[in-house]
């Protein structure tokens, strides 16, 4: 460089020669600044992806340079997220490329003090050997004389973070291995949703999609912390607000959602049915319901059998209760005049009647089968269109809720009457012919011992108000993980097969037809269940599934009761379950009673953990709380532990199903590094190796495995081609071409389909889930963005947006309508109805199946085509939602003599003690209500946030939130420590004293709530005690979901004791409260 | 109720989400609570609110030793050069010599302290990358760039006897720049948002040059034979008086922002400075002709000057660390402006009769 | 702004009345700019654990819990009669909860959230005082530190009236929001604004943003949300208006913002005059010491 150039590059020179004498602008610009360009502009490619955290399913653009991901940001084309990302989505670059991820396989020998690194393929081989051995040991051909053909030695947990394709292979492989204890987060998260929505409407998914909230006139967010847990989805609430909608947040805490709501209504945790019941009561007494809708589309007019007795008559119990079995006989809840009891989610309860076989098993969790299908009704039920018959649903409803007065609501929930009144008026004034209101909920409702009924209560209310199936209406069940909807649809769940077909129960000599006869509906789309099931069996066993062998129906292992994740933990504690796969779940933190979880794992022979980093569930044997307390010693623990590093979403292709029921394809951007592999890879190769090892076996136990269709094209890195798996899920016709929709499925073995509700996702051989037409080029439905089940519909039951004659109820709420000219249903969304079934169609005498659904019945999955105000079957704890107190509650039931849900499920165990019931003097030892929740900045059990510094630093410590009044009462200091104690354990947390926690006046006295996020655990970058040390395994009897949203505890200032003193403190509380193993387990 | 419709043609009347309102709709049958805006004040303190008592400003990142030292040494050097040149010109070689050395030593130390304080000392030269009148540090750098070599040449020539003519010229040049060296550091610190500095920008240069003169005088008293040190003594006294008077005025004009000059660590340093300076000046006045007294008084003056710089520095630090020094004066300013506006509006209204009917005014 | 600039001035309008406090802006900024994580500091300042803007926090979300209400928002958190006496939270609220637990106080509560950032002042003190030209005004009218130039003199830190720019200790240089200078060059939106789920952070041409903000305040006032006000919008204020300005629901100092910031260099001419006078006094004074009788 010449001197001249040197001088010219001197800013002082430029100052005096250029136009910038003050030297504050261009003259001062450096060479580096002149060269500056965004790193994304240097990317070799931009890969379309989907955020791996929550079920909003925000679109992501992944920028890759030199086969490294260099940036991840929002995809502006997405109609769901419009390019935005919450802090977690924004941190996904650090999540996937950060230094906290593991890239080597680790192995812990029995009794060894630490992990050692081992070779990936060696580890795969070892795991395969252990699966084979443990499967054999735990094998059951028969149980109590019934063929079960399964192994109880192995269990698997996890799936909601995985792709649909991965869930599919896991379910397929494990089912073929005879493993029935296959579970995922859907159990602990939203299982009650499936039961609640399914029994009410016919399908267990959210009835609407988040973007449609923009059309609401009023949005009630209750049991959800929408703005924090689904931040990017919350933009649609903001959009509604911008247009004048009222937003109401009913929540025990004033949260970031409340801050943006017009009305925040504090409620005592665990009392929503009382509140919703209060609204239902007032809607009924004020005649504020949408009468035309109610009459035409719900079962309000249906007459119920005179055997039925209500909680009004039986002081909180329905008819048919058996206190010894803790179950109801559902027969007394049926519709009158219909001979065969309606099948339901709990369809197997009527197996005996329907299949003509003796019934052998009682206990089973079936209501989630409602995920896609309603219960069956044989014949036409009697109705009274005047709604005056004393046994019509409408009158029963009126009587049932008559005691849910505003005064009762105030006393039970702590909601002052004027506040209640305000909610009522906003809601009713914004519902009806011209206006629609939406409910949004999530796990503030699902995680209760009455969880399914919370959701039912909202369904009843929304049906009364005429809000289902209409724009701006509906119930948005805000799902949790990126693909938790998918892992329910293609269920890694013990009681379901793909598409909500029930897992068969053990029955004597059960044929495929018996099974279908018992479990399928007579009318509606479930009547075709045999086609769905046979196509599934064909997809799994190919040529080995023939008409002669009932399409290999007997290759399916049989369930005999509750094999849910909590039952598995109990089985582990008993030493029955010996091998455990954790594929993206962290029960040592996330599941209720984490101590019991770990003690169960300490009883295992082997444990396989697949995750990004060393989560608590992978290391409890060397550094878990029981090691610290001396309860366990590492050298005594014989469990072998395998840790496999998992591939991130950017490192594999596949689909996530978000809370809109939309399947979105994400493309692999790069191959995973080191030994990290996708779960697809793991499952495929594990299956391949096991099949190799068993090749040639003629043992009938091995045939389901050896006959399994298990050929998938392999791509780079021997990763199976996820698109091929998705195509199998979609299914093929007789011509070998991908099917276009589930109506093409046949029960003669000519079609295959891995999940009937996903049939159509590969229509025309095109991966419909990968469609990405920008939202700017479509209407708000965005039908050409990805693909939603069923049949790409976005609003379910949208036939109900039109009146019985097929005209929109209101021209400002038009969604689909009948076009007489073309003789078809038309509109913005894909009609959730047979396209050419006219409004005046009436089923001919004796019609069955879909033909039995009339032109005015929008709930086409239901046997009677109606929305169910009253569920004549399907739920184990009652046809109508009834207020019961939580398992651990400071209060008795003000409404009835029956305090708690009589059919809640308890697991008495030394490690799982409950608090004394209300009225018991010991109950006062745990005087405070505790509730748990999420923070925007963290994710679930923390595996994806506590190791991610950008997130961890935003909420660095575990804390509890208390009111100033409670702080004064217990001497708690803002910013310092508190110890929180239950009968299960004691934990410590930092104290935040805040007005956001309002003391409530309940039963005439003040009650305080302690609020705690549950994201922490002892491992990772940000660490803390796990909340779930405190929670008990107390479950909803329908779906086995744990009650972690409402419990009781004591709180005291200071840190918790260390070592053995910790349990000594808990034992001290046991003594003070008089707690034994049986405490709290009474009906 | 929503103002948008879903018609058969599609959505009509949509609004972007950013137009969402919170707290506007709870108006069922006009139900609107009117909250008198209650604002409670922490008793006994002036009304002042902040964000968790966190400072508004970011904290001064300068090392006190480096930057207060830099201020002190710069002042010492600048004033010393002036005194030295005077001594040269008035033929007081024994006064000139130590002061020339002092100037070189001090300026070297000053620059070294500055460089040492840089986060990237290797990039010191970037100081001469631009010339910005808006930046006292930039201006100062250029001044130092000119002054340093002159002071150096003067001292080297003095020590070696080489090129005495040029040495003298250099000494005069250094003396010409010396006052600038001593003074620019006042704008340097005042040209910040630090309340205790910025608010004192009118007096601070006088405090600094006074302090510099006192220090240089002190140095002269300590190092030169008493016979030749008379100008140094006078400079010391003059400087002390100037510094003390300027400080007094500064504190009185600053209002509550002056507190850090009286309280805490910085207050202590300021008191020490005052005592040392006054004592040194008294020594110069009363015992200046005594070698020992002169030496002690000179040292006291140097120490006093150093304490002034450290005191001013740490008063700045303290004022930046407490949000009240930022918020209260600004609030007052806003209130005054509001009152002024009201008064002038009232005046305007009174002088020009409004064209329309008079609006009732309730405030 | 440089005369050769073909670009209109770009900036931010951060409307805190639609902020959900999610901190996406903080994280998106860190990811894009590879800003270091700055440690786990539990502050007990509501949900704010970042504390404030600094070298490693270029966007900062403030959380303020107050016994006051936003418009007619119904917070529902009234205290029932008979609840125990409250304690001192040691919190910043100007009245401690319970100080005024009268019946009329029931339910008045609001939780303000606000994402703060460098203001990209029209008259930027940081930029004015920077001796190296590391800080400069870009063609977009924004204020940017050039990491290849900054020598870490630290002058800009106390110069900024908002407490924005700060020195990263282990690095020695100062850092702050660049308004994503690199992205702007390609016509991209800044990372924080792009991520923001509710459009609380609005990026665009400053003139347009100002017009939009005026409309917004009018709208809020009409709706009865009287406490809404713009901060940093006025081109006549002490810094000549902010390139990044805000809609606030309370006084600025409640959010940690100075109520009436003035660019320090506004007084610099006067400072130079005073300094010049002082220098002259020094020269004259010392000269005077040589006058008179030689003793
Ligand atoms: N940032 C973030 N987002 C997430 C997650 C996360 O961990 N972090 N997790 C994802 C997952 S897995 C899920 S399932 C969803 C969950 O999403 P949400 O259900 O919204 O999450 P939570 O915070 O657990 O609970 C919601 C609210 O229920 C309230 N609540 C507790 N008990 C009751 C009650 O009895 N009645 C009523 N009405 N309210 C009650 C709590 O105070 C809380 O505000 O979020 C998903 N999104
Ligand atoms: N007290 C209390 N307890 C609760 C809840 C509550 O509200 N309160 N909520 C419940 C709910 S709703 C849920 S969903 C559960 C969640 O509880 P968990 O599911 O146990 O929690 P996560 O941390 O999400 O665990 C998922 C793990 O999967 C890993 N992972 C992510 N992607 C992949 C992948 O592609 N492959 C593999 N192999 N691993 C992957 C993550 O790193 C993470 O460690 O917690 C439940 N527990
Ligand atoms: S976590 Fe959920 S809301 Fe946040 S970016 Fe990911 S998908 Fe969107
Ligand atoms: S806010 Fe501070 S850092 Fe930002 S431009 Fe203004 S003076 Fe500079
Ligand atoms: S620290 Fe860097 S940016 Fe700040 S004034 Fe000094 S050189 Fe300029
Ligand atoms: S504009 Fe860019 S640099 Fe500035 S805060 Fe936003 S993301 Fe960070
Ligand atoms: S991203 Fe937007 S909504 Fe979230 S904290 Fe930042 S400004 Fe507020
Ligand atoms: Mo979940």
UniProtKB/TrEMBL annotation, chain A:
Cofactor: [4Fe-4S] cluster
GO cellular component, one term: cell envelope
PROSITE patterns: 4FE4S_MOW_BIS_MGD
Gene3D superfamilies documented for this protein: 2.40.40.20, 3.30.200.210, 3.40.50.740, Dimethylsulfoxide Reductase, domain 2
Region (Disordered): 347-386
Isomerase among keywords: no
Biological processes per GO annotation: anaerobic respiration
Family annotation (Pfam families): Molybdop_Fe4S4 (PF04879), Molybdopterin (PF00384), Molydop_binding (PF01568)
Protein's cellular compartments: Cell envelope
4Fe-4S Mo/W bis-MGD-type domain: residues covered: 44-100
GO molecular function (one): oxidoreductase activity
InterPro entries hit by this protein: Asp_de-COase-like_dom_sf, Formate_DH_Act, MoPterin_dinucl-bd_dom, Mopterin_OxRdtase, Mopterin_OxRdtase_4Fe-4S_dom
Keywords: 4Fe-4S, Iron, Iron-sulfur, Metal-binding, Oxidoreductase
Main location: other
Family to which the UniProt record says this protein belongs: Belongs to the prokaryotic molybdopterin-containing oxidoreductase family.
NCBIfam families, per database record: formate_DH_Act
Stated name of the protein: Molybdopterin-dependent oxidoreductase
Automatic annotation (TrEMBL), chain B:
Compartments, record wording: Cell membrane
Entry-linked Pfam families: NrfD (PF03916)
Membrane topology according to the record: Multi-pass membrane protein
Keywords carried by this UniProt record: Cell membrane, Membrane, Transmembrane, Transmembrane helix
CC terms in the record's Gene Ontology section: plasma membrane
Annotated Pro residues bias: 354-363
Sequence segments annotated as region (Disordered): 330-363
Membrane-crossing residue ranges in chain numbering: 67-89, 139-157, 169-186, 206-224
Compositionally biased spans, kind Low complexity: 341-353
InterPro entries: Electron_transfer_protein, NrfD-like
Family assignment from sequence similarity: Belongs to the NrfD family.
Name listed for the protein in its UniProt record: Polysulfide reductase NrfD
Source taxonomy: Bacteria, Bacillati, Actinomycetota, Actinomycetes, Streptosporangiales
UniProtKB/TrEMBL annotation, chain C:
Main location: other
Keyword Metal-binding: yes
Record note on cofactor: Binds 4 [4Fe-4S] clusters per subunit.
Gene Ontology CC terms: cell envelope
Database matches in InterPro entries: 4Fe4S_Fe-S-bd (IPR017896), 4Fe4S_Fe_S_CS (IPR017900), FDH_Electron_Transfer_Unit (IPR051555), Formate_DH_Fe-S_su (IPR014603)
Annotated residues for binding of [4Fe-4S] cluster 1: 19, 22, 25, 196
CDD domains reported in the protein's UniProt record: FDH-O_like
Cofactor list: [4Fe-4S] cluster
GO-annotated molecular function: 4 iron, 4 sulfur cluster binding; metal ion binding
Residues the entry annotates as binding [4Fe-4S] cluster 3: 118, 121, 126, 160
GO terms of biological process kind: cellular respiration; formate oxidation
Sequence positions that bind [4Fe-4S] cluster 4: 130, 150, 153, 156
TM spans (from-to): 271-291
Domain of life: Bacteria
Protein's name in the database: 4Fe-4S dicluster domain-containing protein
């Amino acid at each position: 460089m010449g001197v001249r150039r040197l001088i010219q590059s001197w800013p002082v020179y430029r100052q005096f020669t250029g136009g910038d004498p003050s030297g504050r602008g261009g003259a001062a610009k450096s060479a580096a600044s002149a060269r500056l360009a965004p790193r994304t502009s240097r990317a070799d490619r931009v890969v379309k992806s989907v955020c791996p955290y929550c079920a909003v399913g925000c679109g992501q653009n992944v920028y890759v340079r030199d086969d490294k991901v260099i940036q991840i940001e929002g995809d502006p084309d997405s109609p769901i997220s419009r390019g935005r990302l919450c802090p977690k989505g924004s941190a996904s670059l650090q999540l996937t490329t950060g230094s906290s991820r593991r890239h080597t396989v680790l192995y812990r020998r029995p009794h060894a003090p630490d992990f050692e690194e081992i070779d990936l393929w060696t580890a795969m081989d070892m795991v395969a050997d252990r699966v084979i051995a443990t499967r054999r040991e735990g094998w059951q051909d028969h149980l109590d004389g019934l063929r079960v053909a399964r192994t109880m030695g192995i269990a698997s947990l996890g799936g909601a973070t995985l792709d649909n394709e991965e869930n599919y292979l896991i379910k397929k492989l494990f089912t073929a291995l005879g493993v029935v204890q296959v579970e995922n987060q859907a159990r602990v998260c939203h299982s009650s949703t499936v039961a609640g929505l399914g029994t009410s409407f016919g399908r267990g998914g959210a009835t609407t999609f988040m973007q449609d909230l923009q059309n609401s006139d009023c949005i009630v967010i209750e049991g959800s912390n929408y703005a924090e847990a689904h931040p990017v989805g919350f933009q649609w609430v903001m959009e509604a607000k911008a247009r004048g909608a009222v937003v109401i947040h009913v929540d025990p805490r004033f949260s970031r959602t409340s801050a943006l709501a017009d009305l925040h209504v504090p409620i005592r945790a665990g009392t929503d049915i009382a509140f919703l019941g209060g609204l239902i009561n007032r809607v009924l007494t004020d005649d504020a319901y949408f009468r035309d809708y109610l009459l035409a589309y719900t079962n309000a007019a249906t007459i119920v059998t005179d055997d039925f007795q209500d909680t009004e008559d039986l002081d909180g119990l329905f008819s048919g209760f058996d206190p010894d079995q803790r179950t109801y006989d559902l027969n007394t809840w049926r519709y009158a005049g219909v001979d065969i009891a309606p099948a339901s989610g709990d369809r197997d309860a009527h197996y005996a009647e329907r299949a003509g076989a003796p019934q052998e098993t009682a206990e089973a969790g079936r209501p989630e089968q409602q995920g896609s299908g309603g219960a069956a009704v044989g014949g036409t039920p009697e109705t009274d269109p005047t709604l005056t018959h004393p046994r019509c649903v409408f009158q029963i409803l009126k009587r049932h809720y008559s005691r849910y007065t505003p005064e009762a609501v105030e006393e039970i929930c702590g909601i002052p009457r004027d506040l209640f009144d305000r909610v009522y008026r906003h809601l009713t004034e914004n519902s009806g012919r011209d206006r629609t209101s939406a409910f949004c909920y999530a796990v503030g409702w699902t995680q209760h011992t009455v969880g399914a009924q919370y959701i039912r209560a909202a369904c009843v209310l929304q049906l009364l108000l005429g809000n289902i199936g209409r724009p701006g209406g509906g119930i948005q069940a805000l799902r949790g993980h990126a693909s938790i909807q998918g892992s329910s649809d293609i269920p890694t769940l013990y009681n379901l097969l793909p598409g909500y077909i029930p897992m068969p129960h053990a029955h004597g000599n059960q044929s495929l037809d018996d099974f279908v006869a018992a479990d399928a509906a007579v009318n509606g789309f479930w009547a075709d269940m045999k086609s769905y099931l046979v196509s599934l069996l064909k997809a799994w066993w190919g040529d080995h599934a023939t008409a002669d062998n009932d399409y290999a129906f007997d290759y399916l292992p049989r369930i005999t009761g509750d094999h849910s994740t909590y039952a598995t933990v109990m089985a582990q504690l008993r030493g029955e379950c010996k091998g455990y796969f954790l594929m993206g779940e962290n029960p040592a933190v996330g599941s209720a009673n984490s101590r019991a979880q770990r003690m169960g794992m300490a009883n295992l022979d082997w444990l396989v953990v697949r995750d990004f980093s060393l989560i608590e569930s992978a290391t409890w044997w060397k550094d878990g709380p029981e090691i610290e307390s001396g309860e366990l010693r590492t050298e005594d623990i014989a469990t072998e532990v395998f840790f496999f590093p998992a591939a991130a979403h950017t490192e594999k292709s596949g689909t996530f199903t978000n809370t809109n029921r939309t399947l979105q394809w994400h493309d692999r951007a790069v191959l995973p590094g080191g030994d990290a592999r996708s779960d697809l890879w793991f499952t495929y190769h594990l299956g391949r190796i096991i099949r190799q090892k068993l090749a040639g076996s003629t043992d009938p136990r091995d045939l389901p495995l050896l006959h399994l269709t298990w050929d998938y094209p392999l791509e780079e890195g021997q990763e199976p081609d996820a698109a091929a798996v998705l195509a199998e899920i979609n299914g093929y016709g007789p011509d070998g071409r991908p099917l276009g929709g589930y109506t093409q499925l046949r029960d003669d073995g000519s079609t295959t389909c891995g999940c009937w509700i996903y049939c159509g996702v590969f229509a025309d051989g095109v991966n419909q889930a990968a469609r990405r037409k920008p939202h700017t080029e479509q209407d708000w439905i965005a039908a050409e963005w990805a693909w939603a089940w069923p049949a790409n519909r976005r609003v379910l039951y949208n036939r109900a947006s039109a009146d019985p004659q097929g005209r929109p109820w209101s021209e400002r709420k038009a969604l689909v309508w009948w076009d007489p000219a073309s003789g078809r249903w038309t509109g913005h969304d894909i009609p959730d109805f047979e396209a050419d079934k006219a409004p005046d169609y009436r089923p001919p005498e004796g019609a069955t199946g879909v033909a039995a659904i009339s032109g005015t019945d929008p709930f086409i999955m239901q046997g009677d085509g109606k929305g169910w105000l009253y569920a004549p079957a399907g739920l184990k704890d009652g046809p109508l939602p009834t207020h019961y107190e939580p398992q651990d509650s400071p209060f008795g039931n003000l409404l009835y003599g029956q305090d708690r849900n009589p059919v809640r499920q308890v697991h008495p165990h030394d490690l799982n003690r409950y608090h004394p019931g209300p009225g018991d003097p010991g109950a006062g030892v745990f005087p405070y209500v505790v509730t748990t929740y999420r923070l925007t900045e963290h994710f679930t059990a923390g595996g994806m946030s506590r190791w991610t510094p950008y997130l961890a630093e935003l909420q660095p410590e575990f804390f509890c939130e208390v009111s100033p009044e409670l702080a004064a009462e217990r001497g708690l200091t803002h910013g310092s420590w508190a110890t929180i104690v239950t009968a299960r354990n004691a934990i410590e947390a930092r104290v935040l004293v805040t007005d956001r926690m309002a003391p409530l006046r309940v039963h005439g006295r003040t009650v305080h709530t302690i609020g705690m996020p549950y994201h922490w655990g002892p491992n990772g970058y940000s660490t803390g005690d796990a909340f779930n040390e405190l929670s008990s395994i107390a479950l909803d009897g329908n779906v086995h979901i744990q009650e972690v949203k409402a419990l009781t505890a004591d709180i005291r200032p200071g840190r918790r004791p260390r070592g053995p003193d910790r349990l000594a403190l808990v034992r001290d509380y046991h003594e003070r409260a008089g707690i034994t193993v049986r405490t709290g387990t009474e009906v | 109720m929503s103002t948008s419709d879903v018609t058969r043609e599609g959505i009509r009347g949509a609004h972007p989400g950013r137009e969402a309102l919170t707290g506007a709709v709870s108006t069922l049958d006009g139900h609107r609570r009117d909250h008198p805006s209650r604002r409670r004040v922490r008793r006994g303190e002036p009304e002042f609110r902040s964000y968790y008592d966190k400072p508004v400003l970011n904290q001064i990142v300068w090392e006190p030793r480096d930057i207060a030292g830099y201020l002190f040494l710069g002042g010492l050097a600048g004033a010393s050069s002036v005194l030295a040149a005077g001594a040269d010109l008035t033929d007081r070689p024994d006064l000139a010599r130590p002061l020339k050395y002092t100037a070189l030593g001090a300026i070297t130390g000053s620059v070294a302290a500055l460089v040492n304080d840089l986060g990237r000392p290797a990039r010191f030269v970037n100081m001469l990358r631009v010339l910005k009148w808006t930046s006292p540090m930039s201006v100062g750098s250029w001044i130092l760039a000119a002054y340093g070599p002159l002071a150096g040449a003067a001292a080297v020539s003095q020590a070696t006897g080489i090129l005495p003519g040029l040495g003298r010229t250099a000494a005069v040049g250094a003396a010409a720049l010396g006052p600038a060296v001593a003074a620019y550091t006042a704008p340097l610190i005042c040209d910040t948002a630090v309340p205790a500095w910025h608010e004192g920008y009118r007096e601070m240069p006088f405090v600094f040059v006074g302090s510099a003169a006192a220090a240089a005088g002190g140095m002269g008293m300590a190092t030169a034979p008493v016979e030749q040190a008379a100008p140094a003594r006078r400079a010391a006294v003059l400087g002390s008086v100037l510094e003390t008077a300027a400080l007094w005025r500064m504190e009185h004009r600053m209002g509550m922002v002056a507190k850090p000059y009286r309280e805490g660590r910085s207050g202590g340093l300021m008191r020490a400075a005052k005592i040392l300076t006054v004592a040194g000046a008294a020594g110069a006045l009363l015992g200046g002709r005594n070698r020992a007294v002169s030496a002690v008084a000179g040292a006291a003056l140097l120490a006093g000057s150093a304490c002034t710089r450290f005191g001013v520095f740490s008063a700045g630090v303290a004022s930046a660390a407490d949000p009240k020094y930022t918020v209260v004066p600004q609030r007052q300013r806003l209130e005054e402006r509001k009152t002024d506006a009201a008064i002038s509006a009232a005046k305007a209204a009174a002088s020009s009769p409004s064209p329309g009917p008079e609006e009732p005014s309730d405030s | 702004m440089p005369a050769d600039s073909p670009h209109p001035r770009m900036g931010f309008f951060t409307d805190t009345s639609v902020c959900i406090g999610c901190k996406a802006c903080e994280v998106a900024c860190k990811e894009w700019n590879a800003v270091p994580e700055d440690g786990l500091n539990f502050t007990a300042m509501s949900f704010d654990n970042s504390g404030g803007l600094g070298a490693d926090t270029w966007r900062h979300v403030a959380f303020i819990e107050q016994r006051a209400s936003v418009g007619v928002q119904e917070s529902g958190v009234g205290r029932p009669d008979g609840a125990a006496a409250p304690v001192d939270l040691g919190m910043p609220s100007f009245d401690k909860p319970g100080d005024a637990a009268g019946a009329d106080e029931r339910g008045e509560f609001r939780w303000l959230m606000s994402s703060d950032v460098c203001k990209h002042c029209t008259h930027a003190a940081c930029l004015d005082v920077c001796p190296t030209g590391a800080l400069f005004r870009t063609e977009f009218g924004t204020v940017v530190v050039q990491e290849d130039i900054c020598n870490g003199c630290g002058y800009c830190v106390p110069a900024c009236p908002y407490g924005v720019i700060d020195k990263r200790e282990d690095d020695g240089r100062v850092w702050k929001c660049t308004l994503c200078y690199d992205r702007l060059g390609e016509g991209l939106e800044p990372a924080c604004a792009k991520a923001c789920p509710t459009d609380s952070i609005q990026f665009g041409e400053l003139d347009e943003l100002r017009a939009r903000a005026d409309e917004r305040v009018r709208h809020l006032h009409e709706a009865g949300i009287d406490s809404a006000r713009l901060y940093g919008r006025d081109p006549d204020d002490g810094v000549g208006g902010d390139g990044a300005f805000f809609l606030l629901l309370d006084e600025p100092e409640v959010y940690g913002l100075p109520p009436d910031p003035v660019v320090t260099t506004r007084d610099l001419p006067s400072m130079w005059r005073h300094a010049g006078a002082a220098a002259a006094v020094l020269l004259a004074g010392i000269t005077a010491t040589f006058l008179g009788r030689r003793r």
